[in-house]
Amino acid sequence: MPTALYCVVSKHMRFSCLLLQIAVFALTALLPQTAMTQGFDQLRRGVVRVGVGDPGTERSAGTGFIVDEQCTFLTAKHVIERAPKDKIVISFQNPAASSQTLKFRARLLFASPDQDLAFLRVDAIDGKPCTSTAPMHMFRIRKDALDSSLVGAPISIVGHPVLALGGGSVDIPVLRKGHLASVEITVTAGVPSLLLDLTGVPGFSGSPVILDATGEVIGVVYGPGQADRQWGFEWATPVVLDDYRIATTSKSSR
Predict the structure, then answer these.
(1) What mean pLDDT is predicted for residues 36-53?
(2) Which of 83, 100, 139, 191 would staple 52 via disulfide (CB 3.0–4.6 Å)?
(3) Rounded to two decimals, what is the model's pTM?
(4) How would DSSP label each residue in the chain?
(5) Residue 165 is part of which domain span?
(6) Do 197 and 146 belong to one domain?
(7) Which of 149, 211, 207, 202 is nearest to 179 (CA)?
(8) pLDDT interval class at 90 (50, 70, 90)
(9) The domain that contains 227 carries what CATH number?
(10) Neighbour-count burial for 18-33, b at 16+ CB within 10 Å, e otherwise
(11) pLDDT (0 to 100) of residue 22
(12) Is residue 177 domain-shared with residue 223, that is, in the same domain?
């Protein structure tokens, strides 16, 4: 939707053009917030780095993001698959002071048996329940099933890449943008994967795939987990609200 509209008309039509400009402005203001209008400063407050080890000496393994007020984080299963259950660490910039990095132990809540999806839980942030973590951005998972009508839609991913800055990952989230290229290619048996028209890098595994039009999460980056990166594309596991409901109500949650 354009933020400005210019008319080249006769002087007799200038008033009509002015009314049209006002209508366009009002419609734009009433549209739902998107990933763009939310802004990177908001999105980054819900993304965490996932590590394996003890807080302070953990090895960076990938990215995760918060999906509810109970401190539930979603990531790619292969990020933590070989980690001892008491050696999963999440770290993120303090929303109240970005120069400070917070680190907490996380436990595995649920790992999908046939998808590259894992849900983690942190019982408290700074000794407080997550219902009080208002500064953190809660990502919304898409409710509706994904279909080919979404192909070509602008998307964003936010994660913690491994950058060549002395080794290791950084605690500053990075934004990448592209388009959804396909929802129909099956890499392994089961649900088709999402093919993203953007280039991923190590460390982005577990990052949210955000549909810019609605701000909803439609997938979780996994390349090069189940499939290698090819030709500048990236792969992701599709995710919808039912996956979250299964994870948080399953008897295998712990």
Answers:
(1) 85
(2) 83
(3) 0.80
(4) --S-------GGGHHHHHHHHHHHHHHHHHSPP-HHHH-HHHHGGGEEEEEESSTTTPEEEEEEEE-STT-EEEE-HHHHTTS-TT-EEEEEEETTEEEEEEEEEEEEEEE-SSSS-EEEE-S-BTTB-GGG-TTSPPPEEP-SPP-GGGTT-EEEEEE--B-SSSSSB-SS-EEEEEEEEES---SSSSSPPEEEES---TT-TT-EEEETTTTEEEEEE-TTSSS---TT-EEEEE--HHHHHHHHH-TT--
(5) 140-241
(6) yes
(7) 211
(8) very high
(9) 2.40.10.10
(10) eeeeeeeeeeeeeeee
(11) 41
(12) yes
How many helices (H) and strands (E) the chain has is answered by 5, 13
Q: Is 11 helix (H, G, I), strand (E, B) or coil?
A: helix
Shared domain for 128 and 74, answered yes or no, is yes
Look at 229 and 67; give whichever has higher pLDDT: 67
Amino acid at 205: S
Backbone phi and psi for residue 212, each to the nearest 5 degrees, phi listed first: -60, -30
**Are residues 198 and 118 both part of a single domain?**
no
Domain stops at, among 101, 132, 163: 132
Residue type, 174: V
Rounded CA-CA distance 203/223 in Å is 10
DSSP H or E segment with residue 26: helix 14-30
Residue 128 domain-assigned (yes or no): yes
pLDDT band with cut points at 50, 70 and 90 for residue 252: low
CA distance 31 to 134: 24
My answer on whether 160 and 204 are in the same domain is: yes
**Do residue 152 and residue 226 come from a single domain?**
yes
